[in-house]
Write a structure and sequence with these properties.
With about 120 residues, the chain is mainly β. The protein is built from no helices and eleven strands. A hairpin with a 7-residue loop joins strand 9 and strand 10. It is globular, with a radius of gyration of 13 Å. The strands form two sheets. Strands 2, 4, 5, 6, 9, 10 and 11 form a seven-stranded mixed beta sheet that branches. A four-stranded antiparallel beta sheet has the order 1-3-8-7, with no helix packed on it.
């Protein structure tokens, strides 16, 4: 049984920071990786960060590179997204996802709202 539970969203001023957490249950040692996506109102879901469960290789789109950092704590089965220098355009619902059976993301969390506003 795969479950993903996000936490850490909230309201932050432009230029501020937030750290999201995603607690995973299941046989995580066999997973391909985990990632974070976001979806703003009226927009398509966007990939923002990914990490290979084995080896820890990370991936980012240019829109967040240098500002967002994904990391994992294998002992806690938890993935984090550290977001710095936040901008109003980062406002979205952020979703945690797991690539369990292949490199495609096939399990999703319920989402957590991040609002960047003064």
């Amino acid at each position: 049984q795969v479950q993903l539970v996000e936490s850490g969203g909230g309201l932050v001023q432009p230029g501020g920071s937030l750290r999201l957490s995603c607690a995973a249950s299941g046989r995580t040692f066999s997973w391909y990786g985990m990632g974070w996506f976001r979806q703003a109102p009226g927009k398509e879901r966007e990939f923002v960060a990914g990490i290979r469960w084995s080896g820890g290789g990370t991936f980012y789109p240019d829109s967040v590179k240098g500002r967002f950092t994904i990391s994992r704590d294998i002992a806690k089965n938890t993935v984090y997204l550290q977001m710095n220098s936040l901008k109003p355009e980062d406002t979205a619902v952020y979703y945690c996802a797991a690539a369990v059976a292949s490199y495609d993301y096939d399990y999703w969390g319920q989402g957590t709202q991040v609002t960047v506003s003064s």
